Amino acid sequence: MNELVSKCRALALDHEPDGWPAIQMRDVSALCDAVESVVPGMDRLEDRLASGCEIRKQFDRWYLFDAGGDSVVSGGTIRELVINLVFTDC
Q1: How far apart, in whole angstroms, are the C-alpha atoms of residue 43 and residue 51?
Q2: Domain of 37?
Q3: Do 64 and 57 touch, CB atoms closer than 8 A?
Q4: Distance CA 23, CA 88 (A)
């Protein structure tokens, strides 16, 4: 994700805001997919928190624990935790 954002930012540096940069469609598609995944990720996180889950940072990693204390999903950042929650069957 960071590499994708970096590529898109580099295009912005090389071109005017209304310009027409040469851009690869796979990067545009990947960026759209990433943006669209935020909404379901936040919805899933909100549902999990409402059901008694909690987020804690342990050993330099963020964890989502269920109400019983079992780890549901984790990530090196909150962003990674949410992304992993989207792609985890839980």
Answers
A1: 12
A2: 2-16+23-86
A3: no
A4: 31
Q: What is the CA radius of gyration of the chain?
A: 17
58: enclosing H helix or E strand = strand 54-58
Q: Three-class SS of residue 24? A: coil
**CB-CB neighbours of 81 under 10 Å:** 21
Starting at the earlier edge strand, list the strands of the sheet with 54-58.
Answer: 54-58, 61-65, 71-75
CB atoms within 10 A of CB 51: 9
Q: Supply the pLDDT for residue 3.
A: 78
* Residue 62 reports pLDDT greater than 80: yes
CA distance 82 to 38: 8
If one counts the domains in the chain, the total is 1
Within 10 angstroms of residue 38's Cβ, the number of other Cβ atoms is 13
